[in-house]
Design brief:
It is built from 16 helices and 15 strands. The protein has about 500 residues and is α/β, with parallel strands linked by helices. Strands 7, 8, 9, 10, 11 and 12 form a six-stranded mixed β-sheet that branches. A five-stranded mixed β-sheet has the order 2-1-3-13-6. It has a two-stranded antiparallel ribbon with strand order 4-5.
């Protein structure tokens, strides 16, 4: 009987340990509502995930913007986390949704936001906030000059709308431009046309790559390094080429059209120019501005948002002063297939706000613990103590008079003559948890496999299938995160037991 009671006590404690790990907020969130007022007496902490292309100057700009904001709102602290790729932001958000450890704000693309929305109340709808007279777009209580809704491009706002609600703010929209080293182009015997064409860019780039001096340096710049044509976004490059060639990419309903003969021809053409050394990309070689500004590039396609980084002695360039090369910079539209009918895309991410529960205050935690004790007392269940433990912060709260986890385990080990009994009971508990986890994982793995089979046979149902796939994927990530937290608790408990047995 004594051993059975001990097992029950330990199970209760471990259960509370794992459930109270969510003191930062639970998985299920209430729908976002605009608060009546902004509490200036309270301290806030905002996590902000953004992208930086390994550019040191850009880091300084982020830091200054944050410092300026915190000067306006001294009760708000912004914690910045930078990524080199939007895909990495997306992956981390997806992984963290299950544990409510997403950032408060991140910079991301609309298609990524659409996936985030498969979770309940994950992303905050912003329509009510947009319309708020004090803190909305152009609000009277803002301490900075914020844009009013009518000052924003309606098409950009529409791209941030899903199912009738806006879930992002398009503060980072732009288009692409081709930054050209006119000096080098003319040195090769060419004259820039009014509108760049792909044929022209390929011809000049191939000529630059082929012309070398006897010592192996390139004729046009006298250097060992030359990337005649470099494109920042290969995704945008493909989308624009397909549009210019009147070939399909995708439909508004989600039908994929990219697998066509035109796509194949484009890929073979790009591969040929890459093999000759005439073409490269950001993911292969690095940031286009660094090559352009160092005189190692003739054509660099990047966003108009990066104009201050691009060109000879650009004011925000990230290369050392001794690497600069003097040349005349021309800023032109991206290359076209038909210069009489130019086509290009707008682009850029948006600012997405996540719906997150506030971190529990110490008073909240105390009330939770007292309620748990009252419940156990009312039901006549014996317990050693009830604790609050955050696996996120890896700490125990309110360990008064050393009556916490360590004290409990010491008590448990002294409660029986067999010290191995405690470990055995713990192993049984964690084994049951793992069995449940394995069963759930198997179920969702089967769902994913079935969905893939359906997707192969019924392409017209791809949107619905992807929704199911995404939901199962998110649940699998939740299970993985949960078992990881449980394993962490298991390791901590067993570590304490080992140290006690060694005494």
């Amino acid at each position: 009987m004594r051993h059975t009671r001990m097992a029950a006590l330990m199970l209760s404690l471990v259960t509370l340990l794992t459930t109270l790990c969510g003191c930062h907020g639970s998985r299920s969130q209430n729908a976002f509502t605009v608060p009546d007022s902004f509490d200036e007496s309270r301290q806030y902490e905002i996590t902000f995930w953004a992208k930086n292309d390994t550019n040191k100057t850009q880091v300084d700009i982020y830091s200054k913007a944050i410092a300026d904001f915190q000067a306006l709102y001294p009760n708000i602290t912004v914690k910045l986390r930078l990524y080199t790729d939007y895909g990495k932001i997306y992956n981390d958000v997806i992984t963290n949704i299950a544990t409510n450890t997403t950032p408060n704000v991140c910079i991301t693309y609309p298609d990524h936001i659409a996936t985030y929305l498969t979770g309940d109340n994950v992303v905050a709808p912003l329509d009510a906030l947009f319309a708020d007279e004090q803190y909305g777009l152009g609000g009277s209580a803002l301490r900075y000059d914020g844009p009013a809704s009518e000052e924003m491009i309606s098409r950009f706002l529409e791209e941030c709308s899903f199912s009738g609600s806006h879930y992002a703010v398009p503060f980072m929209r732009s288009t692409e431009a081709c930054y050209v080293n006119r000096t080098y182009v003319e040195a090769l015997g060419y004259e820039l046309p009014e509108t760049l064409t792909w044929d022209f860019v390929w011809e000049v780039s191939e000529a630059a790559a082929a012309a070398k001096n006897a010592d192996g340096t390139y004729t046009v710049n006298g250097q060992q390094v030359l990337l005649p044509f470099i494109y920042k976004s290969t995704d945008n490059m493909m989308i624009q080429l397909l549009r210019q060639k009147n070939a399909g990419y995708s439909t508004d309903s989600g039908d994929v059209q990219i697998f066509n003969d035109t796509t194949e021809d484009i890929l073979y053409d790009v591969a040929r120019h890459t093999a000759s050394g005439a073409f490269s990309t950001f993911k292969i070689s690095g940031y286009p501005a660094n090559f352009l500004n160092a005189g190692q590039c003739l054509f660099a396609v990047d966003s108009t948002a990066g104009a201050t980084w691009m060109g000879s002695h650009a004011p925000l360039s990230d290369i050392s002063s001794d690497k600069y090369v003097d040349f005349e910079t021309a800023v032109m539209a991206v290359p076209q297939c038909d210069p009489d009918h130019p086509q290009m895309i707008s682009q850029g991410p948006s600012v997405c706000v996540f719906n997150k529960a506030d971190k529990r205050t110490e008073n909240d935690l105390k009330q939770i613990l007292e309620k748990a004790k009252e419940t156990l007392d009312d039901r006549g269940i014996e317990y050693f103590d009830i604790i609050a433990y955050s696996s996120f912060e890896e700490k125990e709260y309110f360990n008064i008079n050393n009556k916490g986890l360590k004290a409990f385990l010491e008590f448990a080990n002294g409660y029986t003559n067999n010290k191995e009994n405690t470990t055995a009971q713990l192993n049984a508990i964690f084994k049951n948890i793992k069995t449940t986890y394995d069963e759930d994982m198997s179920k969702h793995e089967k769902i994913i496999a079935d969905c893939k089979d359906v997707a192969k046979e019924q392409a017209h149902n791809i949107t619905s299938v992807m929704t199911i796939l995404s939901d199962s994927y998110m649940k699998m990530q939740k299970f993985k995160k949960s078992v990881s937290e449980v394993k962490k608790v298991e390791r901590e408990i067993k570590s304490i037991l080992y140290r006690m047995k060694s005494k």
